[in-house]
């Protein structure tokens, strides 16, 4: 099989805002047809990367291509085939939702009628009243307008910058379905988030960004196998530290009958350990990103 | 074309308001003219007693004031002021409205070059200014001719056309401001003080009889007495307008092309 084309490729992409860091020497490769997760805490440089790729801000160093074309020289051509949804959407208050979607459609070389038809289909799917003024829409409904304007022209590359804020769980699920459909039809997706679980649901590969640089790129499967969980056990009797001598256990703490620890390793080994214990209660939590950074990446980077 | 049409639609209401106001200024003043004309002698005495400072402030020249064109030249001051504010509003809004309304993200992520955005928006603003001036000129002609006074029609049209020239200057200045002043929250808060500042500089220049200050204020580029006397505009000031406008517009394109559009928070 031919190697897949790189839809996005950045080489030492750098952006400083004056003296403060945006991103530094960022190298990223997104292959055609994948759903690429882009994860990191706020301020790590996710939005800076995305906004640079879209031509909203200008890099101070390095270069990047989308569809093999340089982002600074061919911005308008590239954006013909890109759909973008930011975390917060702002549109013209004097327009109705349908006016905004028509206005958006008028920019693309694809037939505006086809784009508008697609927009209406999507509006129906998301149960959005297109006749309403944008000013009168709730935050969640404005977000739906954002989803539709980002996807109606059937872009080959969909760029999402923390898109799920303000979407209720049902709409979020529908939105993820839609993204998977678009992906099955050939669209590449770049999905930035600071929530690990939504990236897990959706993405094939994940890049972890920290302080302006990508520190690790993993298949989501690898990340899951290596994912750290926080366990809190309520024991029937005073716990014995020796019971927890298992590879992958760290941060072990005892407070009376309560034991808490982080676990990273095979789930089967963990359930084996738990089955030997006399438990009153058990809590398994996904650690937040902060903890992953602390307990997983700090050692390796 | 889509951005141009969208802009025009957005300007529709405000344009109607400005056009009616400007036509109103001309209509009202010219209705008063017959009353002035019938009492020429008394007025001449009153004017002679006016302090020179006051006369300078409102651009009254006793020799020409009582001719119909002299009177028109007087009302032109007020029309200039209003039209300049309108033009400056349009100019300042060109880019700053998208940035302040946080819609720049939407617009710039469409497949358009930034230069195309500037061109479309300036073209829409220029269209509005042209419509305003055209209506103003037509209303001026009708109102002045309706007084029945004898006049040189070419001079009248020349005087009316100065409105457009001033509007172009302030449109260009506003556009330059819209890409250079960071975080413009209110267009009027930028345009009103600027226009009034230039007007006052012009007036101060007259009071002090300072020739240099005339160069600073576009409101003093067109002297009614000169226009009536010579039937022409002073070419050195036209040159200043041309050079300034071209430079300001060029700078607008260059600065906006390099500008970072920051996150909408």
Describe, in plain words, how this protein is organized in 3D.
The complex is a heterodimer of chains A (301) and B (265). Chain A has 301 residues and is α/β, with parallel strands linked by helices. Chain A has helices at residues 46-53, 75-79, 97-105, 112-125, 139-151, 169-184, 196-202, 220-225, 267-275, 289-297, and strands spanning 6-17, 20-31, 35-39, 61-66, 69-70, 82-85, 157-161, 188-193, 205-210, 213-219, 228-235, 249-255, 258-264, 279-285. In chain A, the strands form 3 sheets. A 6-stranded mixed beta sheet of chain A has the order 6-7-8-3-9-10, sandwiched between helices. In chain A, helix 6 links the parallel strand 7 and strand 8 (188-193). Chain A is globular, with a radius of gyration of 22 Å. The mean pLDDT of chain A is 88. Chain B has 265 residues and is mainly alpha-helical. Chain B is 80% helix and 0% strand. Chain B contains 12 helices and no strands. The longest helix of chain B has 36 residues, at 2-37. Chains A and B meet through helix 2 of A and helix 1 and helix 6 of B.
């Amino acid at each position: 099989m031919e190697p897949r084309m790189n839809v996005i490729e950045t080489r030492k992409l750098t952006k400083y805002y004056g003296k403060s860091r945006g991103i530094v020497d960022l190298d990223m490769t997104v292959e055609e047809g994948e759903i690429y997760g882009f994860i990191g805490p706020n301020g790590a440089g996710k939005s800076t990367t995305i906004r640079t790729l879209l031509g909203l801000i200008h890099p101070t160093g390095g270069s990047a291509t989308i569809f093999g074309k340089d982002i600074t020289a061919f911005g308008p051509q590239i954006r013909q085939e890109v759909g973008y949804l930011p975390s917060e959407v702002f549109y013209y208050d004097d327009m109705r939702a349908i006016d905004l979607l028509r206005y958006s459609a008028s920019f693309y070389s694809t037939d505006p009628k086809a784009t508008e038809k697609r927009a209406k289909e999507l509006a129906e799917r998301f149960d959005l009243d297109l006749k309403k003024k944008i000013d009168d829409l709730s935050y969640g409904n404005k977000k739906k307008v954002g989803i539709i304007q980002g996807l109606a022209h059937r872009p080959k590359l969909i760029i999402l910058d923390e898109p799920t804020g303000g979407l209720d769980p049902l709409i979020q699920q529908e939105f993820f379905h839609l993204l998977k459909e678009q992906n099955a039809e050939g669209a590449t997706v770049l999905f930035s988030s600071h929530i690990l679980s939504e990236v897990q649901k959706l993405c094939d590969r994940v890049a972890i960004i920290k302080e302006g640089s990508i520190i690790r790129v993993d298949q989501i499967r690898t990340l899951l196998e290596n994912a750290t969980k926080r366990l809190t056990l309520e024991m029937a009797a005073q716990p014995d530290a020796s019971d927890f001598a298992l590879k992958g256990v760290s941060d072990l703490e005892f407070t009376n009958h309560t034991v808490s620890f982080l676990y990273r390793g095979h789930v089967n080994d963990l359930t084996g350990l738990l089955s030997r214990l006399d438990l009153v209660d058990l809590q398994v939590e996904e650690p937040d990103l902060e903890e992953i950074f602390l307990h997983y990446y700090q050692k390796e980077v | 074309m889509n951005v141009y049409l969208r802009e025009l639609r957005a300007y529709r209401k405000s344009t109607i308001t400005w056009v009616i106001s400007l036509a109103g200024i001309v209509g009202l003043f010219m209705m008063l003219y017959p009353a002035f004309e019938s009492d020429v002698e008394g007025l001449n005495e009153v004017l002679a007693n006016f302090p020179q400072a006051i006369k300078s402030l409102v651009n009254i020249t006793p020799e020409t004031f009582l001719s119909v064109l002299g009177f028109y030249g007087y009302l032109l001051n007020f029309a200039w002021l209003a039209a300049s504010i309108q033009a400056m509003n349009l100019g300042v809004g060109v880019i700053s409205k998208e940035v302040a309304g946080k819609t720049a993200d939407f617009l710039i992520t469409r497949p358009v070059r930034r230069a195309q955005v500037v061109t479309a928006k300036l073209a829409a603003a220029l269209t509005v200014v042209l419509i305003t001036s055209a209506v103003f000129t037509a209303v001026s002609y009708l109102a002045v001719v309706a007084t029945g006074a004898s006049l040189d029609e070419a001079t009248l049209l020349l005087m009316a056309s100065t409105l457009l020239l001033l509007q172009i200057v302030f449109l260009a200045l506003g556009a330059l401001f819209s890409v250079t002043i960071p975080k413009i929250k209110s267009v009027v808060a930028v345009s009103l003080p600027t226009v009034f500042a230039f007007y006052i500089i012009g007036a101060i220049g007259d009071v002090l009889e300072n020739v240099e200050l005339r160069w600073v204020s576009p409101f003093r580029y067109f002297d009614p007495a000169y226009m009536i006397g010579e039937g022409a505009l002073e070419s050195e000031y036209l040159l200043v307008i041309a050079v300034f406008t071209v430079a300001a517009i060029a700078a607008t394109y260059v600065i906006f092309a390099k500008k970072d559009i920051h996150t909408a928070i």
